[in-house]
Write a structure and sequence with these properties.
Helix content of chain B: over 70%
Largest sheet of chain A: 8 strands, mixed
Number of domains of chain B: 3
Structural class of chain B: mainly alpha
Shape of chain B: globular
Strand content of chain A: 15-25%
CATH superfamily of chain A: Glycerol-3-phosphate (1)-acyltransferase
Shape of chain A: globular
Structural class of chain A: alpha/beta
Order of helices and strands of chain B: HHHHHHHHHH
Number of helices of chain A: 9
Strand content of chain B: under 5%
Order of helices and strands of chain A: HEEHHEHHEHEHEHEEH
Helix content of chain A: 25-40%
Distance between the termini of chain A: 42 Å
CATH architecture of chain A: 3-Layer(aba) Sandwich
CATH topology of chain A: Glycerol-3-phosphate (1)-acyltransferase
Oligomer: heterodimer
């Protein structure tokens, strides 16, 4: 990671772009993490999700925050791989663990052990705009291994309208964010999945319904 | 368009007004409830930002004035599209709606009144459904065309009338510039909001229309009209070519229709189940919460001036 380029990218380009061109409505901002280590979990509809979550944090935390992203997509060519690693600071993971040479979450664990923050999308890929996909099991391994690290659930609404998958035209809307109460991981995987699913449903209910046929 | 002496004095007076209000809130500080104090100081802070940006936009030159109001339209339209239900297929049409903002302000900058006055009410009105037909989705068609165009009328067409006041020329019997008409309209509309709120707190008992807004009282409404008309008469000789009679009329229009604009936005928020239109201006709510009254007063005051003086 290049901290100078990262600072320039997130603070001088992304932050003004998101706050002026789009705009954020944040509910319960006071619940955001103030120190690491922490696991931020969010629903995933757009590439901009990561940019928005990074914008929520001040630079002191931002520079310690690493989004977890699919290696097969973000490392598919050299230019994208350089950008993803040096500027965005992703932790690449293999979506099919069988292919991975070592434990898939070793890199994530290393970051958490250093007191860093990670962004994790439990649904895996971006999916249909504004629809929840079923949670993948990956998140439960991570939470089970780190019961002492607080988990911050954040619900994002609007990016599926602004820049959905397979669309290149950005159409501005204000982004709604709901920050949930932080909680801690535990052993029971079924229970964890259920807890995450209901948490996100409850967060979603705090946004006035805007039906979108 | 450097500011003339009168406009510079008015801007100074505006700053003084803010300083005075901040001082009053600061002195009242300990006597207020904690939640009230926080809301008032947030509101005051937002006022400072808005007034300083407003003064900056008017003071530099016409281009910056146009850019400022175009940006205001953009923020308001974005807020509108965020709070209403929209169809997924209409993304590209919403994009066209945004594109019409720079065009509308271009017509203002060109002093092209004919285009300015028909562009959104006629051309965009016809273009939006035409483009929507090509999407071949009939479900929700009427709702989508109606709400999209309605938002453009409120946030682009109505708001751009403020900017057109700013490019009006000097009259033969009037030495000032259009900028002072903007100051006159914006100052009176905003003070009318404040006046109605304060009078309502002091003497407001009878609710006018609780089904739409529980805070609107007869006392507040009448008190607001009295203060706004008085201010309209006092400021008219300094900032406008208005005579005593026409200033009286302008004051009445601004007071009554500022109130109506406020109610209209309240009705929309009730319909959508929202308390505020957004969070852009802490203490006030969203952009549309602040613009609600001027959306009504701007076109009415503009055409009133145009009929009598241009």
């Amino acid at each position: 990671m290049n901290h100078y380029l990262r600072f320039a990218f997130f603070q001088l380009l992304i932050r003004p772009l998101i706050s002026i061109v789009l705009g954020l409505n944040v509910r319960h901002r006071q619940r955001l993490p103030v120190t690491g280590p922490a696991i931020i979990v969010a629903n995933h509809n757009s590439h901009l999700d990561t940019m928005v979550l990074m914008t929520l944090l001040p630079w002191a935390l931002q520079k310690k925050t690493r989004p977890v992203a699919a290696a097969d997509y973000f490392l598919k060519n050299r230019a994208l791989a350089w950008f993803s690693r040096s500027i965005i600071g992703i932790i690449p993971i293999q979506r099919r663990p069988a292919k991975a040479a070592r434990a898939p979450f070793a890199d994530i664990q290393q970051e958490l052990d250093q007191g860093h923050l990670i962004i994790f999308y439990p649904e895996g890929s971006r999916g249909e705009p504004e629809k929840f996909n079923e949670m993948k099991r990956g998140i439960t391994h991570l939470l089970k291994a780190n019961p002492q690290v607080p988990v911050y659930p954040i619900f994002i609404y609007g990016l599926g309208k602004i820049l959905p998958k397979n669309e290149a035209l950005l159409v501005p809307f204000v982004i709604d964010l709901v920050v949930g109460e932080p909680f801690y991981g535990q052993d029971n995987k079924e229970h964890l999945i259920e807890q995450l699913t209901t948490t996100f449903q409850q967060l979603q209910e705090q946004i006035p319904p805007r039906t979108w046929e | 368009m450097p500011l003339n002496e009168i406009n510079r004095l008015t801007m100074a007076a505006l700053i003084l007004l803010l300083v005075a209000s901040s001082l009053i809130i600061w002195m009242l500080g300990s006597r207020l409830k904690e939640s009230d104090r926080i809301e008032l100081s947030q509101r005051m802070h937002s006022w400072w930002v808005m007034v300083l940006l407003f003064i900056g936009a008017l003071a530099i030159n016409t281009t910056w004035m146009l850019v400022f109001f175009a940006f205001v339209s953009y923020l308001a339209l974005k807020e509108y599209f965020t709070m209403i239900p929209t169809r997924r297929v209409d993304r590209r049409i919403i994009f066209i709606a945004y594109l019409s903002i720079p065009l509308q302000y271009l017509w203002v900058g060109m002093h092209w009144y004919g285009m300015f006055i028909i562009f959104i009410p006629i051309f965009m009105f016809l273009l939006i459904p035409m483009r929507m037909v090509t999407l071949k989705q009939t479900q929700g068609f009427l709702k989508a065309t109606g709400t999209l165009h309605w938002g453009m009328m409120l946030t682009i067409f109505c708001v751009s009338h403020i900017a057109f006041l700013g490019v009006l020329p000097k009259g033969p019997d009037w030495r000032n510039t259009g900028i002072s008409l903007i100051v006159y309209l914006v100052l009176l509309t905003q003070l009318n909001d404040v006046g109605q709120y304060v009078w309502g707190k002091l003497v407001g008992r009878i609710k006018i229309i609780p089904e739409i807004s529980p805070n609107k009282t007869l006392g507040g409404f009448l008190g607001g009209i009295a203060t706004t008309v008085t201010l309209a008469l006092l400021l008219a000789p300094i900032l406008t070519p208005l005579s005593f009679m026409t200033a009286f009329g302008a004051g009445l229009i601004i007071a009554i229709f500022g109130f109506v604009g406020d109610l209209t936005m309240s009705a929309i928020k009730r319909d959508l189940g929202l308390k505020d239109t957004g969070q852009l201006l802490p203490g006030h709510g969203g952009m549309l919460d602040r613009l609600d009254s001027i959306i009504y007063t701007a076109p009415l005051f503009f055409h009133y001036m145009r009929y009598f003086y241009y």
